[in-house]
Amino acid sequence: MQQTSVRIVSGSDIVFSSGFNVALPFIDRHLEEGRGAKVAIRSRSGDVTYAELVAGVNRAANALRGLGIGRGERMLMIVKDCPEFFYAFWGAIKAGIVPVPLNTLLRAKDYAFVIADSECAAVLYSPEYAEEVEPALAASAHKPARALRVEGDAAALTSLSVTAPAEFAAVAAAPDAECFWLYSSGSTGSPKGAVHLHRDMVVTSHYYGTRTLGVTEDDVCFSAAKLFFAYGLGNGMTFPLWAGATSVLLDGRPSPESTFETIERFKPTLYFGVPTLYGAQLDALERLRPDLSSVRLCVSAGEALPADILRRWKEGTGLDILDGIGSTEALHIFISNRAGDVRPGASGKVVAGYEAKVVDEDRRERPAGEPGWLLIRGGSTAKYYWRNPEKTAATMLENGWLNTGDTYYRDEDGYFYYCGRSDDMLKVGGIWCSPFEIESTLIEHPQVAEVAVVGRADAQSLIKPEAWIVLRNGAEPGAELEADLLRHCKAKMAPYKYPRHFHFVTELPKTATGKIQRFRLRDAEA
After folding, report:
1. pTM score of the predicted model
2. d(C-alpha 274, C-alpha 263), whole Å
3. Domain check: are 382 and 442 in the same one?
4. Would the CA dihedral through 123, 127, 128, 131 be positive or negative?
5. Residue pair 472/450 in contact by the 8 Å Cβ criterion
6. Regarding beta strands 246-248 and 220-223, do their DSSP bridges make them parallel or antiparallel, or are they unpaired?
7. ∠ at Cα 250 (74, 242), nearest 5°?
8. How far apart are CA 65 and CA 340, in angstroms?
9. Distance (Å, rounded) from C-alpha 89 to C-alpha 104?
């Protein structure tokens, strides 16, 4: 363990030892610190202690190596939120295999793309996803050497792990060695494989989990956001493991009913959601009347949290929501509100351990109040995009800076405000206009449940805002409602910003993280 340790110096700087393998401080350390009997994971299938977690990880590492998966080879994971996700992910890392968690909501064609793109050696999947994964395996031009289910037959990982030894010596690695991949959610097109290093989960867990949220071993963390993407991976796995806390897992799709039931049953102290889910939970509060008394902090990311949802949540539950911005490339949140320092409509201030600046097209820093591209720098950013040098060059900039692809402005007090994705910004009447500002105004209307704003050229080829709206239950679209929405917008915003068209739909296209895919709306027939 001495060869693979990590130390926090003066409460801030992180020092890694030579040979560092990140699985050891997140997994093996807990036995050394006497935490073996403590519950690490709770779910509807039962509890898992830290001792059982260590054994499960080691058995998985032995099973995967026994399958012939080599060091540095990729293993795709289409796995639901369950203890086996922990075993496979950390077992792979201990064995020098690169785990690649994937969105479990994708279709066969998407999986076929990633199988080919990643050139993976193995695919591990929960039986629930066989109808999409197995056709993808058949269709992909690349044929991984191994494809196995998590459970359900003699060749499944759980079956192989039963007879595997419960001890495994982690392979030596390094803080800057490649560790795991995450594919971007595809909010602006095809997903890209972001290559993360052994150091990255330590950096996010220390600076955001410990220093920003104050996670301790007494906490119980429940993330409605799933483990397969960056936000959920931190919330539901790395933060609690780093602190020696407990993780609560929900293996099904999050809904107001399932998330409230999980909170009432397992009594988490930290709850992590996304704006879309918070909105749906608000609509169900009066009907379900959940007991949220165990929760000390709520967190939101995935998209900027409208101030109106924050206000209504505080009124309905007594709890603040700490909004923040992170990314797949940065692994977790790098700008955030804090407990006792919540500014509605703002993403917050820069998280310790990170730097941020707003720049123009020539990368000159913009003054306070003026929007521009948001660049960030910190120790958790991905090394590169797999097989995509053009996107790597455009995103991973010189001197460690990362182009987030978001447009922001910073106020005089150091709070950052989201204006939209850089390619979503609109120029209306020669003036830059934020779609998020229009969306935040529309969401305040009592008949609006969800909204997305994009630009579309009019008859004179001039770009004008149009709104795609999901109405609340019982609301009826029509000329009267459109007139009322226009009055609402014109009363609250500069005159040129109001939507010229309204489209009423039953749902908006989203990624699994809850991000609205505005490019699909821009491409849709009006």
Report:
1. 0.86
2. 16
3. no
4. positive
5. no
6. parallel
7. 60
8. 48
9. 15
In this prediction, residue 2 has a pLDDT band, given cuts at 50, 70 and 90, of very low
Per the listing, tokens 């993808």 go with 136
Distance CA 73, CA 92 (A): 10
Of 282, 290, 274, 348, the closest CA to residue 311 belongs to 282
What are the beta bridge partners of residue 100?
Answer: 76
Q: What is the pLDDT of residues 114-165, one digit of tens each?
A: 999 999 999 999 999 999 999 999 999 999 999 999 999 999 999 999 999 9
- Positive or negative, the CA dihedral 19, 20, 23, 29 is positive
Structural domain range at position 462: 431-523
Q: What is the dihedral of CA 55, 56, 61, 66, to 10 degrees?
A: 100
Cα gap 370→181, rounded to integer Å:
35
- C-alpha dist (Å) from residue 28 to 31, 58, 284: 6, 10, 41
The helix-helix angle for 108-118 and 130-139 (nearest 10°) equals: 50
What tokens appear for 482 in the block?
Answer: 């459109």
Q: Which residues pair with 378 in a beta bridge?
A: 354
Is there a single domain that holds both residue 451 and residue 347? no
> Do both 79 and 126 map to the same domain?
yes
Partners of 101 in beta bridges: 77
Interstrand relation of 333-336 and 321-326 (parallel, antiparallel or unpaired): antiparallel
CB 231 within 8 A of CB 225: yes
How does strand 98-101 pair with strand 74-78?
parallel
> Domains in the chain: how many in total?
3
Looking up residue 27, the CATH number of its domain turns out to be 3.40.50.980
- Are residues 413 and 440 both part of a single domain? no
- Whether residue 3 has pLDDT greater than 50: no
Instruction: State how far the Cα of 335 lies from the Cα of 119, in Å rounded to an integer.
Output: 34
Radius of gyration for the chain, computed over Cα atoms and rounded to the nearest angstrom: 23
The answer to whether 379 touches 203, Cβ cutoff 8 Å, is yes
Q: Whole-angstrom Cα distance, residue 222 to residue 236?
A: 6
Do the beta carbons of residue 322 and residue 301 sit within 8 Å? no
- CA–CA distance from 47 to each of 52, 221, 361 (Å)? 10, 14, 52
Residue 510, amino acid: K
